[in-house]
Amino acid sequence: MPGTNAMPLPHKPMDYPQSYYLATATEHPRHSPLTEDLSCDVCVIGAGYTGLSAALHLAQRGYSVVLLESNRIAWGASGRNGGQLGSAHTVFQPDLIRKYGKERARALWDIAEDAKSLVKDLIREHNIECDYTPGNMGCAVTKGDFSYYQEHTAIVRDDYGYGHYQLLNKEETNDISGSNAYVGALYDPTAGHLHPLNLALGYARACIKAGVRIFETSAVQDIRKTDPARVTTANGSVTASFVIVGCNGYLGPLNRKMSRKILPAENFQLTTAPLPDHLIENIIRNRSCLWDSHNQVYYYRLTPDNRLIFGGGLGLPGRHPKGIDKIVQAHMLKIYPQLARVRIDYSWGGTFCNTFSHLPDFGRLAPNIFYAQGYTGHGLALGALGGKLMADLVTGIAEKFDLLASVPQWSIPDSPFLKNQILRLGFLYIGLKDKLRSLQR
């Protein structure tokens, strides 16, 4: 039978990109590439949050698991994201209700809560040292944004019994954040932030302890949709009863059906030098992480050694412009002009993965081949849950997986050129909306 990709996937393995996270990472030993033909119960492709979670949950249930990674463990977004563990989805409840009805919107909220709880449970269960810190603030750029936060809060409080949200007015938001860029905020003490690479490395250590065989620098070239399935790399193969695909924004041309559902893009971050006392005393007083309602979203937080990690800026997938530090610094100074003289010690970029629905894309490529992708900025939580739900699916538990798989997803022509044109138009549209919204404050 034909595979899912007739042509080999060209790939040059790469080591971790330089970042603050790499500089402060826990031990990350290398794993050898696959150089033989193996058999197992489940072959997992991609050693990010999704793949690591799937592999861990399956191994803990007694399945034999082989995990293949094209670069290093958490080389992609799992090792260099903003480190924010949030509640809800990118789309808040008022819009989910309007689009999908009250019943499905409530079920999606519950899934997001499951995802947040799962990450915290895994940290505790496996004693993962990743600097988890509670507190997450969504900051409103306009009064309309704040009204939307209020509507969302009322729904989850009155209809779902979720009473943790705290709405902050302009003065409270400015006092806590140290910025006058916002009109209010939505604070959630049950969400928080952490060191994303150390979280993934902790998952990997738990996987190894549970018996997962991990192979790095082993890019998958083909997945044969047979029973059992056969996964091939340049120097080996894995025959497995089930295959789980967790590549997200780094899927490449491996599978066209999956590629048509996602729109990968680049996002950029910087880390400052440790801030002096007179600045640290007046920035993010509650040590929560912050994100805002700009269309391109600024997100930032303090590290344990009093640096500011700040994310902002958009780019085409796989392309990192020169001067990332200057690009992101320009965004940072819109929020914190007082940091103009602070040194920038690290800057980097990475690929995150969007869908047009702004909800994750779950699906089956065959009865024994599953995937999850397109977390749209919420991969830290939803990636872990996606892996667990695919592990559940292997065991015959399909309810929550099928709920996410039932969310309609637009298909995009599988053309890198066309996708880049869509992204360019999207960046222009987002920039224009943010400029117009700045006049509404």
Q: Would you write up a description of this structure?
A:
The protein is an alpha/beta fold and 441 residues long. It has 2 domains: 20-80 and 197-262 and 357-410, 3-Layer(bba) Sandwich (FAD/NAD(P)-binding domain); 134-191 and 263-354 and 421-441, D-Amino Acid Oxidase, Chain A, domain 2. The protein is built from 13 helices and 17 strands. The strands form 2 sheets. Strands 3, 4, 5, 6, 11, 12, 13, 14 and 15 form a 9-stranded mixed beta sheet that branches. Strand 1, helix 2 and strand 2 form a beta-alpha-beta unit. Helix 4 (102-125) crosses helix 11 (379-394). The relative contact order is 0.19.
List the main descriptive attributes of the protein structure presented here.
17 strands, 2 domains, D-Amino Acid Oxidase, Chain A, domain 2, 441 residues, nine-stranded mixed beta sheet, FAD/NAD(P)-binding domain, disordered N terminus, 13 helices, alpha/beta
